[in-house]
Write a structure and sequence with these properties.
The protein has 255 residues and is an alpha+beta fold. The chain has 2 domains: 107 residues, 3-Layer(aba) Sandwich (Rossmann fold), CATH 3.40.50.10330; 133 residues, Tumour Suppressor Smad4 (Sandwich), CATH 2.60.200.30. A 6-stranded antiparallel beta sheet has the order 6-5-16-13-8-9, with no helix packed on it. It has a 6-stranded antiparallel beta sheet with strand order 12-11-10-7-14-15, with no helix packed on it. Strands 1-2-3-17-4 form a 5-stranded mixed beta sheet, sandwiched between helices. A hairpin with a 2-residue loop joins strand 8 and strand 9.
């Protein structure tokens, strides 16, 4: 695909704004709505914001790291941008759909490209029941929280919680506890991406729990349903010598 019409967006951090100015001095730019590709300048957090933002879903995103970690980003290089884009490898991402029902019965639907996490709100541990495809699999989990991660997000919060890194081609989701107290030996589960996961909050009035889909938080939830939403897709572009699949593989060999 030819990427002739470029749009540039910045996280607003000084380093990202400087990078945007350098790019605009070198390349012609068009409005986001008219672009063949959007160049995202910032870090992983800003890329996640952009995945949820005003950029049309059909427009691919090419990130350049002007943030901290930059796992979802490419190296920042000003020169030869059109050649990099022509050689870039596309990666389609499908989000999780979270439906979080609050204590008052209202519900909020949000999407997550990395993970959906449930977290205790107070000093007391959360108590949860885990149902998979309508069948109870764990009657009671006492923990600080639990998360469901996509392959693309498996090396983020999920890895910090000692969950498994998932290859992009695995068609799996990681269900990972956060500081499980009971049962102590339960380390989580690998689930097919077709699974419907329901997390019921037990004793929610005494042990309140919040649900977070990427950067959207819903507090005082009583039930959270999570499943992959194949109706939504976003495309990220990566340099051919350092694709997202390669990065996830390399993470498994970092000691």
């Amino acid at each position: 695909m030819a990427f002739e019409r470029l749009a540039f967006i910045s996280s607003g951090a000084p380093l990202a704004d400087q990078a945007r100015d350098e790019m605009l001095a070198r390349y012609d730019a068009v409005p986001i709505a008219d672009a063949d590709v959007v160049i995202v300048l910032g870090g992983d957090g800003y890329m996640l914001e952009t995945l949820h933002s005003r950029v049309p879903h059909e427009t691919p995103l090419f990130g350049m790291n002007r943030g901290t970690v930059g796992f979802l980003m490419n190296e920042f290089i000003v020169e030869n941008l059109h050649a990099r884009l022509e050689a870039a490898v596309p990666q389609a991402l499908y989000p999780l759909r979270m439906k979080a029902t609050r204590e008052d019965g209202t519900a909020k639907v949000s999407h997550a490209f990395n993970e959906v996490s449930l977290l205790r709100e107070t000093r007391q541990a959360a108590k949860l029941r885990i149902d998979i495809d309508g069948k109870s699999r764990l009657e009671e989990l006492v923990c600080d929280g639990v998360l469901v991660a996509t392959p693309a997000g498996s090396s983020a919060y999920n890895l910090s919680a000692h969950g498994p890194i998932l290859p992009l081609s695995s068609d799996l989701l990681a269900l990972t506890p956060i500081s499980a107290f009971r049962p102590r030996r339960w380390r989580g589960a690998l689930l097919p991406q077709s699974a419907c996961i329901t997390l019921a909050i037990l004793e929610g009035h005494k042990r309140p729990v919040s649900a977070v889909a990427d950067q959207t938080e819903v507090r005082d939830v009583m039930k959270v349903t999570i499943e992959q939403d194949r109706s939504i897709s976003r495309t990220l572009l990566f340099d051919a010598d350092h694709t997202l699949a390669e990065r996830i593989l390399l993470e498994q060999f970092i000691v």
